[in-house]
Specification:
Layout: E1 13-14, H1 20-26, H2 36-43, H3 53-57, H4 64-72, H5 76-86, H6 90-96, H7 108-113, H8 119-131, E2 149-153, H9 157-168, E3 172-176, H10 185-188, H11 199-208, E4 213-216, H12 224-233, E5 236-239, E6 245-246, E7 259-261, H13 262-270, E8 280-281, E9 283-287, H14 291-302, E10 307-311, H15 323-331, E11 335-337, E12 340-348, E13 351-363, E14 366-377, E15 380-383, E16 387-388, H16 392-396, E17 401-402, E18 405-406, E19 419-421, H17 433-485, H18 494-497, H19 499-515
Helix pairs in contact: 2-4, 4-5, 4-8, 5-8, 6-8, 9-17, 13-14, 14-15, 17-19
Length: 516
């Protein structure tokens, strides 16, 4: 067991640990854009495979060989169109998508040479060239207005993809979001060095430029009555709620000052214009093993923390952060620890002072403590052990849930008629931005098809009513003639004596009219 921490010193949490120039340098673009020459050379490496594995691996099914060939041909506009047709948030995904475990992992060049084509950076090259060209004509235009209105709750990747796709199809969209700014995860949940120069808002401006999308901020879904109201006043509803709740550690000292959720730390950092005003501890401990944990740990180090420990309760292969993300953390001075479970957050005068961990091992498929403990001194602790859907309202509305998330079919339709869902709030997903985009896009097309079907039904209804009136009129004339011509039916209701024959006749007549 490690010795108890020295509790004589006070917490060292303060802003301004670096110069202004150093803040700017550290939080500059982590993966700079390719130059024109670099992009051409990289595009030439592509083999333009038929039935390309990279396109299959992409959750939005971007035609990767097609857009890369257009880059090689100097047709950046055509390349961007090929990307954004499949993925309207192709600019953000090019920056944050874990290409190393998706398209680039299956690249044939990786098999042949051990180095894949840099698909993500080529995608960014094409999209940025068009998205940031204010003089260029719009890539997409809206279809004619349909007079249909759809409510989209949540302005994150899934909601934005759904709204943009529906707007292109001619529908009017109203987006409701709980935050002061739209963007969701892209605006509040990603590391600043991944999306510098306010890219999330620049991409949002481009998405909204299609027209037909109204954004209402500071609106939160807090009751089943709100959901019922949306269903009554809109032709369809899409829920892209994300995962606003966080899991607790459930250990003593969790509520001490200096302990906070990693997602809150990242959101605060993203909304801080002057990073020199943001306090950071000299010693930071991050608990968790996902990409949020990595983003929090690396940014703490970039803000000037002297030591940053990142502790995860299982082995490295079980971490949800990719191998590339883990290496990124280590190259920035973050110390990764595995098989450590927190047992207590130690405090002094109401502020965190240290975190005590129990060493663990896998025994017969179960995590078991080894009896050894470690203690890391800490001025700040960030919790990143997962997020959860705040589903109480949905359950009250009668929506089916699986594992605390929304149950849907393949196109996102929930158990509530007229309500679709996608993104992290939907059960069974990978919790990736690119997958959320695909959910939103697929749901939008499903909503459009359902609305078109409703229009078709309404258009045929008058013809159907006219046909039924004609049938009823003909039935009356037929029966009157039959009653006169058939003495055996006198004294009885005529349809009884001719029931089967007349019904066959009129049914056939109705089917003929409806088929016209």
């Amino acid at each position: 067991m490690s010795p108890a921490p020295n509790t004589a010193s006070t917490a060292d949490v303060r802003p301004g640990r670096l110069s202004a120039d150093e803040y700017a340098r550290r939080f500059s673009d982590a993966n700079p854009a390719l130059t024109h020459t670099q992009a051409l050379l990289e595009a030439e490496r592509c083999l333009y495979c038929f039935d390309a594995p990279c396109a299959i691996a992409c959750p939005t099914h971007i035609d990767v060989p097609s857009f890369i060939r257009r880059i090689a041909d100097g047709n950046l506009r055509g390349s961007a169109r090929a990307i954004l047709e499949a993925n309207p948030l192709g600019g953000m995904c090019a920056r944050v998508c874990p290409t190393e475990v998706l398209c680039e992992q299956v690249c044939v060049r990786a098999t042949q040479e051990g180095k894949p084509v840099q698909i993500g950076r080529l995608q960014r090259h094409a999209v940025d060239a068009v998205m940031f060209d204010s003089a260029a004509a719009p890539l997409f235009t809206r279809a004619g207005a349909t007079a249909r209105r759809i409510a989209v709750v949540g302005a994150g990747p899934a909601g934005l993809a759904c709204a943009h796709t529906l707007a292109r199809l001619g529908h009017a969209v109203v987006m409701f979001d709980a935050r002061p700014k739209a963007g969701g995860l892209n605006e509040y949940g990603l590391a600043a060095y991944k999306t510098p120069e306010d890219f999330a808002q620049r991409e949002l401006t481009w998405l909204l430029s299609i027209g037909g999308i109204e954004v209402r901020n500071n609106w939160k879904l807090e009751s089943s009555a709100q959901l019922d109201d949306l269903r009554q006043h809109y032709d369809a509803v899409f829920l892209g709620l994300g995962l606003a709740g966080t899991h607790r550690l459930n250990v003593p000292g969790e509520d001490l000052n200096g302990v906070q959720d990693a997602v809150d730390f990242i959101a605060t950092l993203r909304q801080t214009a002057d990073l020199s005003t943001l306090p950071i501890g000299r010693r930071v401990v991050v608990i968790g093993g996902g990409m949020t944990a990595v983003d929090a740990a690396v940014q703490a180090k970039l803000l000037g923390a002297q030591t940053v420990h990142m502790a995860y309760r299982r082995g490295p292969e079980a971490m949800s952060a990719s191998k590339a993300e883990q290496e990124w953390a280590q190259t920035h001075g973050v110390v990764l620890h595995h098989w450590l479970a927190p047992v207590e957050i130690v405090g002094q005068d109401g502020h965190v002072k240290a975190v005590r961990f129990a060493d663990q091992a896998m025994v017969n498929g179960q995590l078991q403590p080894t009896g050894r403990e470690l203690t890391f001194e800490a001025d700040m602790v960030f919790k990143a052990i997962g997020q959860q859907l705040q589903s109480t309202v949905l359950a009250q509305a009668g929506m089916a849930l699986i594992g605390g998330r929304i149950a849907t079919d393949d196109v996102g339709l929930t158990s509530l008629p007229g309500v679709w869902a996608g993104g992290d709030c939907r059960a069974g997903g990978l919790d990736l931005t690119v997958e959320a985009v695909e959910h939103g896009k697929r749901a939008a097309h499903a909503i459009h098809a359902r609305l078109q079907q409703a229009v078709a039904t309404q258009n045929t209804a008058p013809r159907h009513r006219e046909a039924m009136l004609l049938i009823a009129s003909s039935r009356g004339r037929f029966m009157r003639r039959h009653e006169t011509a058939c003495p055996s039916s006198r004294g009885r209701k005529p349809w009884r004596s001719m029931h089967f024959g007349s019904m066959d006749c009129f049914t056939s007549f109705a089917m003929t009219i409806e088929a016209c």
